[in-house]
Write a structure and sequence with these properties.
Layout (H helix, E strand, L loop, with lengths): L2 H4 L2 H7 L13 H21 L3 E3 L9 H4 L7 H10 L1 H4 L7 H7 L21 E3 H9 L5 H11 L4 H18 L1 H7 L6 H6 L2 E6 L5 E6 L10 H18 L7 E6 L10 H14 L4 E7 L3 H11 L4 H5 L1 E4 L2 H4 L36 H27 L11 H19 L8
Parallel strand pairs: 4-5, 5-6, 6-7
Antiparallel strand pairs: 1-2, 3-4
Helix pairs in contact: 3-9, 3-10, 3-18, 8-10, 9-10, 13-14, 18-19
């Protein structure tokens, strides 16, 4: 473990220098060795599991709405019949999805294509580990960044990092994360989405995007546990993707202003914490709890017990606007929290034209082939590196060139494989 790994988040922001140690291009000899060893371990696993499918057993997409009853998104007669038979449910705030509200208001046109297809020819009910890994790696400018997140959260223990990475990929497959992002807002609980329970607004002192969870907007009796799990997974995956152009880093801020007993929801908190630790170990460089409430003190003792040491070091309580300004400039703090940012959230519903490229099968095929070529090149160069004696990895050509090609191909493919976010409207 390095000195930078042991600094808590307050020390880092007080220094005013973003910690680059342990990131691509800033690795010491032992860190390069660990990265090299983790790639070698991963290649062994790729070779062993290349053709072995992993079933989508806990799909977050199939738990509610049309999908739960096996209704295809392009079967208009079946959809009309389903809405007629389920009118009381789809008008209930606890169960209504964004798609339901749009349909009931007369918008019957599919906003995303019904023919979801995983990358690289995998069937919709299973994925191979290899293909799922590369789908997950698309969230990063370099595949090395993805692995380094697990190494840092595992204190550079290669075996522990591999176990965490393997679990993460298996969980992504089982929960159908790629299909969840294909569907986008449409299958999210309408009440949660309209309120803006988790939104991106402003930047922190290092220029990373800030994601705010407004805790008073979370009312457990107004939604199902399945919707919370689905929303948490969607929001965190979205945050990781939006952080891609900001050194893969973001700040997570929980605003407890107006927090009441009805907002206490330890299940939601545990879902967020465990999902971050298992799937996004390095996305959130800091997590702030903006709170000055006696009600929170008992909850905090429980929540802190769920955090691994790395996440705990990145988490801190800020009790007032002055303390919050150590992390975020006043101009970037929402006015509702005492800052100067007078940007109010208003949910903008999805429109068909924003997802036009998702229906362009020829365009997707071309972009997917470009990605496959980039992956093959990166894998080839990285295998050479792991099999050789040279320690330096990312900075050595042609491996760095292969990583750049992967980045370009991932950016090109993105609009073909996921619905746009509200932040992109």
């Amino acid at each position: 473990m390095t000195v930078a790994d042991t600094l808590d988040i307050q020390q880092i922001y007080k220094q005013g220098i973003e910690q680059t140690n342990g990131t691509v291009g800033h690795l010491d000899n032992s860190q390069e060795q660990a990265l090299k060893a983790l790639w070698a371990r991963l290649f062994e696993h790729f070779d062993k599991t290349q053709e072995k499918p992993i079933l989508v057993e806990k799909s977050l997409v199939a738990k509610s709405g049309l999908a739960k009853d096996g209704i295809s998104g392009d079967d208009s007669s079946a959809i009309e019949k389903w809405y007629s038979e389920n009118k009381s449910k789809v008008t209930d705030i606890k169960h209504q999805l964004v798609r339901d509200k749009l349909y009931l208001e007369g918008n019957h046109e599919p906003l995303v294509p019904a023919n979801f297809a995983p990358l690289f020819g995998d069937p919709s009910d299973s994925r191979t580990f290899y293909n799922a890994f590369w789908q997950a790696a698309l969230r990063h400018r370099s595949p090395d960044t993805y692995l380094l997140g697990f190494l840092k959260s595992s204190e550079w223990d290669v075996n522990k990092a591999f176990s965490r990475l393997e679990h993460s990929i298996n969980r992504r497959i089982q929960q159908d994360i790629d299909r969840l992002m294909w569907e986008g807002d449409l299958i999210q609980n309408c009440g949660i989405t309209e309120k803006g329970l988790c939104i991106q607004t402003g930047k922190d002192k290092f220029g990373s995007p800030v994601f705010i969870v407004t805790v008073r907007l979370n009312v457990p009796k107004e939604r199902t546990e399945a919707d919370v799990e689905k929303f948490a997974a969607y929001s965190l995956e979205k945050a990781a993707q939006l952080a891609r152009n900001y050194n893969d880093r973001a700040l997570l801020l929980y605003d407890f202003t107006g927090f009441k007993l009805e907002n206490v929801d330890t299940a939601f908190s545990k879902t967020i914490i465990t999902t971050i630790q298992e799937l996004y170990p390095h996305t959130f460089g800091a997590t702030l709890l903006f709170v000055n409430s006696w009600l929170f003190s008992g909850i905090w003792k429980v929540i802190r017990g769920w955090m691994d040491p790395m996440v705990a070091r990145r988490t801190t309580i800020v009790k007032d606007i002055k303390a919050l300004q150590e992390f975020i400039d006043l101009s970037q703090i929402p006015a509702s929290m005492g800052g100067e940012l007078k940007k109010e959230f208003k949910y903008v519903y999805p429109r068909k034209e924003e997802n036009d490229k998702m229906a362009d099968q020829a365009g997707r095929l071309k972009a997917e082939r470009q990605l496959a070529t980039a992956v093959d090149s990166f894998v080839s160069e990285t295998r050479k590196w792991t099999e050789g004696s040279d320690v330096a990895g990312h900075n050595a050509d042609p491996r760095a060139q292969a990583a750049a090609a992967f980045d370009s191909a991932a950016t090109e493919l993105d609009p073909f494989i996921r619905a746009r976010f509200v932040e992109e409207r």
